[in-house]
């Protein structure tokens, strides 16, 4: 039996496969080099556009991954593998993985929203997702916060974006809200003068917007005053604590009382009922 044609066919097919394999490797190597080049150009363009560094990194990684997918598919197609079937298999696998990782995908989507819309950035003090603290890092799936007592809290981005987010650092200035209670017997003009003096003597208080000092309510046990000066956001807590302490000192010096909650109790005596009770004994 003449097997020469079989040998020639195998050799021809082998040579063709080797040529295609070399071409596929060349496509992959050159394509990867071109992808790196385009990726670098894209990163520089986004940096020149002064985009957020985290957004630049995120978009750069996505762009690199998408271009590499095209390169790999082109290389596989050169070998002779049908990419249509491969794409269908990858799509089905991606669907199965997506169903199994719904929570992670939700956190990923929330991370994309955080990076695009920037409700907070690194260094901001925020309250959201049931926690509060300073933003230390923003990643695709999680956000890391540092509490005032130096604890690290890692919150899924889906949890952070599922409710209201209060960003205390988004503006340069903040208003300090103090409520001060004085006695009903204290002179109103004296109280106002002392509070205005305390606010005016603090150099951290801004002139614009002007501080607001008003008698706000007559409570059960005290006359309540609001003291609302504006300060730089970085000075908020220092002014809050130190101004509260200074108000107490000035009130003591001026003889202004700070009443504690109290209630008047009226006791009524009924002689007839008292006599009946003694007779029963």
Task: List the uncertain runs.
Answer: none
Write the H/E string, N to C.
HHHHEEEEHEEEHEEEHH
The dominant shape is elongated
Reported CATH architecture of the largest domain: Orthogonal Bundle
* Mean pLDDT reading: 82
* Helical residues, percent: 40-55%
Describe this structure in words.
This protein is of the alpha+beta class. The chain has helices spanning 4-48, 53-79, 83-100, 102-117, 157-161, 188-200, 236-254, 271-280; strands at 125-128, 131-138, 142-146, 152-156, 166-167, 173-175, 178-182, 212-218, 223-228, 230-232. It has eight helices and ten strands. The strands form three sheets. It has a five-stranded antiparallel beta sheet. Helix 1 (4-48) packs antiparallel against helix 2 (53-79) and helix 6 (188-200) packs across helix 7 (236-254). The longest helix has 45 residues, at 4-48. The N and C termini lie far apart (135 Å). The model has no long low-confidence stretch (mean pLDDT 82).
Précis, in short:
The protein has 281 residues and is an alpha+beta fold. It has helices at residues 4-48, 53-79, 83-100, 102-117, 157-161, 188-200, 236-254, 271-280, and strands at 125-128, 131-138, 142-146, 152-156, 166-167, 173-175, 178-182, 212-218, 223-228, 230-232.
Please tag this protein with its features.
281 residues, alpha+beta, Helix Hairpins, SH3 type barrels, Alpha-Beta Plaits, 3-stranded antiparallel beta sheet
């Amino acid at each position: 039996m003449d097997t020469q044609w079989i040998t020639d066919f195998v050799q021809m097919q082998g040579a063709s496969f080797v040529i295609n394999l070399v071409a596929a490797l060349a496509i992959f190597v050159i394509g990867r080099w071109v992808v790196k080049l385009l990726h670098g150009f894209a990163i520089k363009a986004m940096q020149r556009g002064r985009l957020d560094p985290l957004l630049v990194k995120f978009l750069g990684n996505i762009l690199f991954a998408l271009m590499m997918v095209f390169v790999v598919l082109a290389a596989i197609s050169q070998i002779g593998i049908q990419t249509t079937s491969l794409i269908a298999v990858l799509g089905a696998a991606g669907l199965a993985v997506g169903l199994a990782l719904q929570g992670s995908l939700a956190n990923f989507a929330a991370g994309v929203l955080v990076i695009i819309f920037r409700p907070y950035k690194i260094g901001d003090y925020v309250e959201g997702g049931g926690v509060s603290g300073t933003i230390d890092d923003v990643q695709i799936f999680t956000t890391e916060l540092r509490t005032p007592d130096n604890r690290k809290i890692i919150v899924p981005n889906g949890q952070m974006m599922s409710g209201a987010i209060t960003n205390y650092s988004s503006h340069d200035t903040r208003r300090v809200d103090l409520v001060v209670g004085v006695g009903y017997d204290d002179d109103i003009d004296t109280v106002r003068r002392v509070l205005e003096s305390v606010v005016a003597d603090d150099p951290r208080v801004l002139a614009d917007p002007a501080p607001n000092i008003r008698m706000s309510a007559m409570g059960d046990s005290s006359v309540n005053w609001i003291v609302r000066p504006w300060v730089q956001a970085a000075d908020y807590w220092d002014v809050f604590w130190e101004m509260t302490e200074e108000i107490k000192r000035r009130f003591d010096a001026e003889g202004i009382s700070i009443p504690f909650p109290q209630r008047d109790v009226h006791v009524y005596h009924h002689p007839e009922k008292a006599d009946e009770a003694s007779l029963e004994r």
